Amino acid sequence: MSRWKKLSALAVAAVTAVSMTACGPDDSEGEPGALERLTDDVPGSLQAAADKAKETETVRADVVTSGGAADSEMQMTIDFRDSVSFEMVGDVLGDPISIRMVDSAMYTENSAEDRELYGDKRWTKFDLSSSPIGDMGVDQMLQESNPSQQIEALLELEGVTVVGEDTVDGIRTVQYTVTTTPEELAEAQPEGSVDSSDLLAAGDTLGVTEVTVDIWIDEEYLLRRFRSDLGTAGVTTVDYYDYNEPAQIEAPPAADVVDLEDAFKDLEDAFADIDKDLEESLADIDKDLEDALKELEDLPAGN
């Protein structure tokens, strides 16, 4: 994978992670009558789910995107404690990829071909805290992408209805749906969130005029599935499981990592050296020409 495609994959990964983070407490069976309450009291149930979502520390998710610029299938583990971290494996932009984010740094596993480009290093590092993306506060935006806010966004929209009971990965749930515009859904998002800008961009550049959002809530008010249908921009479905199960996401060993910022700096230094050598060579040529012209001027007349 080229350096530029790698950066594109990192960007896709960052945006994907931001749009699918989920939260909620440990799985349990739920009490009798819970599905009835979920069906009968939509605002109350969504608020209860949003409140429950704030309790999550870790979660795993399977993410499938289709119908847009590139199909993808990914499995994620997300840790909301302290600085948000995640691990993702799957397929992005047509290439298998493995990505970790730890302490605002993104690590991408290199293919065999890429390792030859990076001194046989297995991982490349991209420090978001020292990049223009980092200046946007990616870590904060990941925190703000907590599904409690996604669910609360539905509370801000009119027309949320109950589709009915459904089973997600063997768990009984109630499905809710709403169809709105990118502008209305963006307005319902937290101010400055990544989702807002993405939704508006989809509307402007891809001609998306309608967005359908579906969520599935189980008897314990846990978000089990989230699906957004942006038409020509694609459909993303996220299944959540293993709430608050142990998850240890660590940076790769330093010996196996090459820093992309350092690699680009090395390239800049190499180009700077080439420019310097070229300037010196041109200066030498100019001096030689000047000396040659002077010698010609000093020749006796007629020679």
SSE blueprint and pairings:
Elements: H1 3-20, H2 34-40, H3 42-53, E1 58-66, E2 72-79, E3 85-92, E4 95-102, E5 105-109, H4 112-117, E6 123-127, H5 132-135, H6 138-144, H7 147-156, E7 161-168, E8 171-180, H8 182-188, H9 194-205, E9 211-218, E10 223-229, E11 235-241, E12 257-259, H10 260-298
Parallel strand pairs: 6-12
Antiparallel strand pairs: 1-2, 1-11, 2-3, 3-4, 4-5, 5-6, 7-8, 8-9, 9-10, 10-11
Q: What is the structural class?
A: alpha+beta
The number of helical elements comes to 10
User: What gross morphology would you assign?
Assistant: elongated
The major beta sheet can be summarized as: 12 strands, mixed
Rg, rounded, reads 27 Å
- Strand content range: 25-35%
**What portion of residues is helical?**
40-55%
Explain this structure.
The structure is a single chain. The chain is of the alpha+beta class and 303 residues long. 40% of the residues lie in helices and 28% in strands. It is built from 10 helices and 12 strands. It has helices at 3-20, 34-40, 42-53, 112-117, 132-135, 138-144, 147-156, 182-188, 194-205, 260-298; strands at 58-66, 72-79, 85-92, 95-102, 105-109, 123-127, 161-168, 171-180, 211-218, 223-229, 235-241, 257-259. It has a 12-stranded mixed sheet. Strand 1 (58-66) and strand 2 form a beta hairpin. The radius of gyration is 27 Å and the shape is elongated. Residues 7-12, 17-32 and 133-137 have low confidence and may be disordered.
